[in-house]
């Protein structure tokens, strides 16, 4: 049984994802697709529009066989850590290959890029430090350092978001001494973030979420998503009367920022000197998340890094919490599984070095604490009984079976 | 110019309070009434139904001359500390007398009680420790210890809530070496807490709030409040579309309890060993503040003590914060003042040892931090722009002038 791994957020699952899923199977000749998916909060420091359970269902309905959660300490992180956690999980589950979407579309160029940077590592790191000292953001410094290394042939453009992730996946596999083979599918839409639609069937997740918010209903996104996604999005709304967005959490973020003391602020993960005061002053003056973000954004702090910091403040995730979580995932939380996925897991599970968590209650509570807090925070967007109903899933919902 | 001090919460101001205000002036022959009033959170660990600004207006409209705020570290506290903070403020403002409502109604008996307990202090304290060891609550232990001291003549019944407060007022004045004279007015309604109405013009604040909640409008409370209170209650509702209650804060309390770590819980003011786990487990299972409280209540922890602890958790008030605040108020925050009150303050202010805060912006931010956090938390019951509008008053509202 051959398996291919996919790293995804499915926010929500759309036709581009479906194309990628099918291509992943076809290109690698795999029987089984394993998805490592972000939980309720995403890599860019945003709440997912619907819960991880609904997004896992979307993936299963579209042909995924196993959906596992990227644990919070790896999901809400910069590309490098996000990649290392995701790849480690897929490696632990014995995927023979990983297939990712990229702007480049040529796997050969990725391997070349990783090789090139590993050979020029010291100079590269010197450049990175140099540019960071000039006050630019970390991702910007990476791109500038890469450019400063001079002319290189056949490498990928490391200013594009999906190329960056792809690069980090391969780099992470190297550091794990993993023999996973990588494949890449060229993305149909121009940009991960693009909120314009250029195609009559393919639109980015960003533009799809924008359509939902602008129209307040799902009809307008129908051309861009599988029918199964439509049904799950509708079911979620009927059940919770809500699609999640950052503004839902603003009252909680403002409340936290304005009641925390200095020590507590400084303990928060990824917070640097000077930022607490800046965040607290802006929170006092802002009446929406958007206006708050516009106040705190600087050249040094990217929008996404600040969003991640805000998620960590919401979930009360400290530097110590992240240290304790370590630099490799310590468990694999199973969100959903197909019949094929069950057969696969039964075959490989004796060789899986990490515990696979199906029933939360039989697992040490402490290890899952950060995911649990993220689930609690995520559910605060809902009103009363719906809030409790959604949070209860975190410990009561068994993996979804199809 | 003679002044009498009154210690109050006015939640909301009703005919009983008006009677007490008028009696206080008449009994003491005072020109000026100074009210030390709780802010947005009250002694019993509850949010006030309307903000401190509206309650200050009610008091001014009914004849009060100066309304000052009992700072948070003294307002949300057991009777002894509440009394010591309130009396210290009225003493600093040079009130010649304090007049309080009580079940007893006989000031002579209060002085006797204070004398008796000061004389029997050691035995009394031994009894208190004895009963606390048996697992009863602190107020219950006080009452039992008082009973155990045997037969005494002409003392007040220290199982009644207003008698207890009155006792602590006099006791606090003694410890301050203050020469304030005390007076007491017998309360019309049987109990502070009584939610039944026995009179056609006098009802307890508790029963008035109950009527508002049950009926959803103010018409039913009209017989029990001055016309000016009616107008202020209506204006508050028109402005904020809300009357505050504990359930409004439940999502925030649950969120805090389920995202705090053990150290943070143990740092919270008035938290004792064993309580964090109990609170967190109950928060997980409860979908309302009421059901939460019913789960955590024990013989040892009274409902009001637990409510106060919950307010401290909401405002993130630590043991260290309360230590820093000290055991005497460090400032007097002026909420409202009449023409008479201005004349009085102009006369005495050179002899007032504490700074009088009229403009928050000209005062060290750190000292007012706990009041500010309380105001922030209090405003979280409201939606979006109303929340910000109410919170802004905390630093932008000058004292109300009449």
Entry summary:
Two copies of one chain form a homodimer. Chain A has 402 residues and is an alpha/beta fold.
Describe the protein's architecture and organization.
2 copies of one chain form a homodimer. Chain A is of the alpha/beta class and 402 residues long. Chain A folds into 3 domains: 3-103 and 184-219 and 328-401, Rossmann fold, CATH 3.40.50; 106-159, no CATH class; 246-323, no CATH class. Chain A contains 19 helices and 8 strands. In chain A, strands 1, 2, 3, 4, 5, 6, 7 and 8 form an 8-stranded mixed sheet that branches. In chain A, β6 (332-337), α17 (339-348) and β7 (356-357) form a beta-alpha-beta unit. In chain A, α4 crosses α8 (161-175), α6 (121-133) packs across α7 (138-148) and α18 packs antiparallel against α19 (384-396). The longest helix of chain A is centred in the middle third of the chain and has 15 residues, at 161-175.
Topology:
2 copies of one chain form a homodimer.
Chain A: E1 3-8, H1 15-28, E2 32-38, H2 52-61, E3 66-70, H3 72-75, H4 79-92, E4 97-102, H5 107-119, H6 121-133, H7 138-148, H8 161-175, E5 181-186, H9 205-215, H10 227-240, H11 246-259, H12 262-267, H13 275-285, H14 289-296, H15 303-314, H16 319-325, E6 332-337, H17 339-348, E7 356-357, H18 369-379, H19 384-396, E8 400-401
Parallel strand pairs in A: 1-2, 1-4, 2-3, 4-5, 6-7, 6-8
Antiparallel strand pairs in A: 3-6
């Amino acid at each position: 049984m051959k398996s291919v791994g996919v790293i995804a957020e499915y926010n929500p699952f759309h036709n581009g994802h479906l194309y990628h899923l099918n291509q992943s199977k076809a290109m690698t000749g795999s029987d089984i697709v394993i998805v490592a998916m972000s939980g309720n909060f995403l890599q860019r420091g945003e709440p997912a529009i619907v819960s991880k359970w609904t997004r896992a269902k979307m993936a299963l309905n579209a042909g995924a066989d196993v959906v596992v959660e990227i644990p919070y300490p790896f999901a809400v992180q910069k590309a490098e850590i996000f990649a290392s956690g995701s790849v480690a999980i897929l490696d632990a589950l014995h995927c023979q290959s990983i297939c990712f979407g990229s702007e480049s579309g040529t796997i050969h160029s990725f391997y070349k890029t990783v090789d090139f940077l590993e050979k020029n590592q010291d100079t590269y790191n010197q450049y990175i430090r140099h540019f960071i000292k000039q006050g630019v953001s970390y991702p910007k410094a990476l791109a500038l350092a890469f450019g400063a290394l001079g002319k290189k042939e056949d490498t990928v453009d490391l200013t594009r978001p999906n190329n960056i992730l792809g690069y980090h996946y391969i780099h992470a596999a190297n550091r794990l001494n993993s023999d996973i083979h990588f494949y890449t599918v060229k993305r149909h839409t121009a940009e991960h973030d693009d909120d314009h639609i250029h195609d009559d069937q393919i639109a980015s997740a960003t533009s799809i979420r924008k359509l939902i918010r602008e129209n307040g209903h799902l009809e307008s996104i129908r051309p861009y998503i599988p029918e199964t996604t439509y049904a799950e999005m509708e079911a979620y709304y009927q059940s919770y009367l809500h699609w999640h967005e950052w503004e839902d959490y603003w009252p909680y973020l403002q409340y936290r920022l304005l009641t925390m003391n200095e020590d507590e602020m400084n303990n928060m993960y990824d917070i640097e000197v000077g930022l607490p005061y800046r965040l607290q002053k802006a929170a006092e003056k802002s009446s929406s998340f958007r206006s708050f973000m516009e106040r705190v954004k600087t050249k040094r702090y990217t929008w996404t890094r600040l969003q991640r910091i805000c998620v960590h403040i919401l979930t009360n995730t400290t530097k110590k919490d992240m240290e304790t979580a370590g630099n490799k995932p310590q468990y694999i939380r199973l969100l959903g599984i197909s019949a094929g996925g069950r057969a696969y897991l039964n075959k490989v599970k004796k060789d899986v070095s990490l515990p696979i968590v199906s029933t939360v209650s039989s697992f040490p509570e402490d290890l899952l604490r950060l995911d649990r807090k993220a689930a609690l925070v995520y559910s605060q967007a809902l009103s009363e009984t719906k809030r409790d109903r959604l949070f209860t899933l975190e410990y009561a919902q068994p993996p979804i079976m199809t």
